[in-house]
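Bench log, entry 3. Co-assembly request; chain sequences pasted below exactly as received.
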Amino acid sequence: MAETLSLHPDRLFSSDPIQRDIAGRLYAKIKDLPIVSPHGHTDPSWFADNENFSNATELLVQPDHYLLRMLFSFGIPLQALGFKNRDLTKGDTGIPVETDPKVIWRTFASHYYLFQGTPTNIWLDYVFVNVFGMKEVLCAENADTYYETITAALQTPSFKPQALFERFNIEVIATTEGALDDLRHHKKIKQSDWNGRVITAFRPDNVTDPEFEGFEENLIKLAEVTNINIDTFAGYLASLQNRRYYFKEMGATSTDHGHATARTLDLSDDEKEALYQTIRSTNFSAEDADRFRAQMLTEMAAMSIEDGLVMQIHPGVYRNHNQSLFEQFGRDKGADIPVATEYVNNLRPLLNKYGSHPKFKVIVFTLDETNYTRELAPLAGHYPALKLGPAWWFHDSPEGMRRYRQQVTETAGFYNTVGFNDDTRAFLSIPARHDVARRMDCAFLAELVSDHRLSEKQAEKIAYDLTYSLAKDAYDL
Amino acid sequence: MAETLSLHPDRLFSSDPIQRDIAGRLYAKIKDLPIVSPHGHTDPSWFADNENFSNATELLVQPDHYLLRMLFSFGIPLQALGFKNRDLTKGDTGIPVETDPKVIWRTFASHYYLFQGTPTNIWLDYVFVNVFGMKEVLCAENADTYYETITAALQTPSFKPQALFERFNIEVIATTEGALDDLRHHKKIKQSDWNGRVITAFRPDNVTDPEFEGFEENLIKLAEVTNINIDTFAGYLASLQNRRYYFKEMGATSTDHGHATARTLDLSDDEKEALYQTIRSTNFSAEDADRFRAQMLTEMAAMSIEDGLVMQIHPGVYRNHNQSLFEQFGRDKGADIPVATEYVNNLRPLLNKYGSHPKFKVIVFTLDETNYTRELAPLAGHYPALKLGPAWWFHDSPEGMRRYRQQVTETAGFYNTVGFNDDTRAFLSIPARHDVARRMDCAFLAELVSDHRLSEKQAEKIAYDLTYSLAKDAYDL
Amino acid sequence: MAETLSLHPDRLFSSDPIQRDIAGRLYAKIKDLPIVSPHGHTDPSWFADNENFSNATELLVQPDHYLLRMLFSFGIPLQALGFKNRDLTKGDTGIPVETDPKVIWRTFASHYYLFQGTPTNIWLDYVFVNVFGMKEVLCAENADTYYETITAALQTPSFKPQALFERFNIEVIATTEGALDDLRHHKKIKQSDWNGRVITAFRPDNVTDPEFEGFEENLIKLAEVTNINIDTFAGYLASLQNRRYYFKEMGATSTDHGHATARTLDLSDDEKEALYQTIRSTNFSAEDADRFRAQMLTEMAAMSIEDGLVMQIHPGVYRNHNQSLFEQFGRDKGADIPVATEYVNNLRPLLNKYGSHPKFKVIVFTLDETNYTRELAPLAGHYPALKLGPAWWFHDSPEGMRRYRQQVTETAGFYNTVGFNDDTRAFLSIPARHDVARRMDCAFLAELVSDHRLSEKQAEKIAYDLTYSLAKDAYDL
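Structure output for the full assembly:
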């Protein structure tokens, strides 16, 4: 028989009664604050078109790379989760592609126990209880009931994207779009009667990373879209600035850069022009490409000072580590793996140039936790422009968030951090993720209060800032 | 006066009453499960010959590199612990070699306080109380009593290896033998009336690592033993496959590979043959040797798919760091030091080739804890073939195990891990080590239950799996 | 209104009543032990001249790089804290230099909330309460009262350096001086009637690091001061040995070496002479300089065996990361950033040569916490000469100290560590820093007692040793 499912009001707080009570009091004061989501990957067309979501599987299973990776790690092929091989000439294993969403849901349900102890379990249970009113832990036996209940609910008006946005108490949410995106959905939202604030963020990797798929064609489109000649580096920069202004018009307050490393450079004008021409010749080395990306971070910083967009750097991932999976199924299927990342030498050119500039803001993230105490907290605790992004991706979890606060706070304080990012395309999980962050921050503060490192009054103010003000300030929202 | 020695029933559980009680309940359900020991270094001749052990010093002090290293670090020369310099022409310090085991025991006893706070203390106190019924903390004053009590007990029938094996409730234990071992002890055990399950594991470093002492002669023996011509790479591989089948016949279910790094390669057939010939010429560079080791991991993976032996990789140790100690006293004297280890790039060739193969299983270990969250949990949470070995060597300790679960679980879950390995040649400490692992797992689960991340019922099932099923499944036992 | 300020007697102890009570009992037994401060940066002239300190700002704000860095990170220019640009031709921002110490204090006070959760907050609150009797948390509103109260107190006899030294119950304090220092203040203290023990430590980086500012002139001075011809490497070494003996005469028991890495070398005599001549030619590469530093660590070790000075190595910092800040304001303004550091390969030449020598002692520190379990605890747990320095600089904080004990103890034990270093030039904060260390050690021991890894009697002895004996022994005090 399935276990009863419920959300304990004290979940994620210490079982020590002193800490638990302090955490509970802190949490009570901030739990109902609106959600500020300055960085994420929801689809703006949801909010623009406001169509009902289709079914449980398409909404909750297939777009969530946390789910895909864990299921795949237990030998469930992506075909069994409804994904079609894109190239049957290579590595076709003859595995049939499952097309019935209910069957896929059953596969997921019968493996739900694999997620015990992971944040996925916490997020989904929150969604199951709070959004869909489920009362049993998901398992093979109740898979169909679950599927039908959720899918039926999704057909109703109160489960349309805009209704959920309001129900979730979202004050503002940022999506992320490539530099060439026409932002038609954001435009539509802006022109509509709906008052929800959905903004974009400028993600130019596809036109700044020479090794990005289709880079050369992307540059041609960039020139077309902006109607700027990009034969020179200056022209290329002008066209990027042009796009940034367009994104800003559509509400963007930030840019985002996802390079393999945090390398930056500060070349002379001649060097930059020569490097750009090498890159444009398409006859460039891996080191050329790397230097170009490095220089482009510094150029983007210069533009941030000009146009006021806050810069975000998300480095340190080996994308698409599983080559044949990538060839068959493409990106974002759960095969991205963090790598050791270096910041002190790599960021120095950029920070020496702009790190003390009063108009510059750069938010740096890491998947290599060894940098929290060694590099990032010390850097953030010195450079005025640099703030530390929250525990990211694999680390936006109870233990990950705890380590983040324990390792960052003593050197950088609370006020060199920027609040929480949900960074997700799993729309329904957004309140769950913010709830975990709020609880873990309160639990951390409760420990500092319980051993007299902070007064409870100080902790109250900090909890409010971590939940609300810091994100608003850091991202100029 | 010596302190009273006793083992508290709640040891290693949180002092928080809520967590302590949950941990106690979980532990009560699994504490008596049989010991599954899929990876270790006990001597198979003990079980084959079933002779009494000699004395306290020879059994408990001299083979334990944890003891040797700590005593050495306080200036006690190995000679004082009974070790003879093997080459008196080099670095002979004129220190006399102690030959009286009782005197050596006294030296150990009077320095036993050095181990406070280390797992050695926990393991040995467990042995002293549970195996020998001691009632005082070991110190200089009671050293002789200790020595005599233990040595006397060891002469009795109930302290013979087979009797202890049964008393320890060991369901199966794996030893580790080099590729050229004739496995006579395992054969003898198999052919005997005794029903204890003692299996071997295939450790081929001495014939796959060109820099292993005696590598070239080892290859000649390999050819002789298998009666296979190894002039070509194909012949060499065939002879290794031959040995693997022999080990499998003698009960092996796994192989083990202890390289300095986790590097793997996937060369073409021509490249492999050429590299092999270079290695055989004995005129090879360090890089050649490294590439050969890297390629051999991939070859071993291919053979695992063929013969079903589970692969284990234990990388990242600088062996014999203290050169003169090595020259005088040889390997395994406590001078092996972990080094920073990289997995994401290094394992990619192997994982891209076989990481998604349904018949392949590889268990990866680390001594570089920075990889838990950054590299290993993400890799294990994606590749079907890859499971994560438990906290290893310097880390099979309360704090080490806690960090392992805290850092691995959120990304890889519980079910991409493989239960506990005692990995020891200290036979008497095996129950103590498993007990520490069981207690720490229960303590970790109790924290998750206490803050409502798991229900107690879920935790019970997981505790059982961590203690018993995962090791049985992962190692095909 | 300002919050009430008080120091809770149980601060930094766990809120769990069992652990808190054990910690309290342990702490009660060691809290009044005299302060042994074997490594730090106080100014010996304070104790030699025994003049009153000037005012709150000059004593508490301006010399403290923890304060400067955090304030700078929130956009407060150093000019606003009273620092004059040294070169107005470069990067002069026209920011006026504040000269009124009270105005600077106000700036600090109104940003004091930034330090919440950092050790600075703990140290300063301790000083405010215990040294100056303040009763409110520092903030903008009470800034002037604070300034006036502190500044007035500083004018009185009981706040003179020698009086504070006695009031702080300091048994011995070591300062740090460059190799060319004439140690006049130490001489004066020695010759005075005052009995306070203020000793020096030999810091030769300015004459052993070819990339140190003014290296070549420093060598010329070295030759002059020692009256030794340094044209050969042997002469250079003799002059260094000469300085070491002078420092030893003035009370030094240790040397200190602050290189960018932990690299050591063991070159032949010819190689050393050739390298020295290259360095003296001033026409050397970065690699030459690095090799010279590496060799000099080994030479210093040899001299330590000769003269008995304990060696300290503090590697792994990128000094003066912010180039323009350095050009304008010089060293030690809060822009030093830790970098990843390697010990196993780097220290091997030195450790292989002297690591087992009975007369050698070397204390190694790190700012890269990943080395605690991976490299440093294993090395300290093997080599007799090597002991582990305490949690250092960015890590001499509650969480930093906790991680240190949790990660070091299981492999190296307590007795391969050396007690606490305050390592500060902030004289008033010394008792606060030692108090934090004592409390965190007691809290850590209390956890081990509470889960039955140690008896309370064992913990009492260890607490005493961590607080007092280990530092005395390790530094031969």
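Chain A has two domains: 17-51+157-474, 52-156. Chain A has a mean pLDDT of 97.
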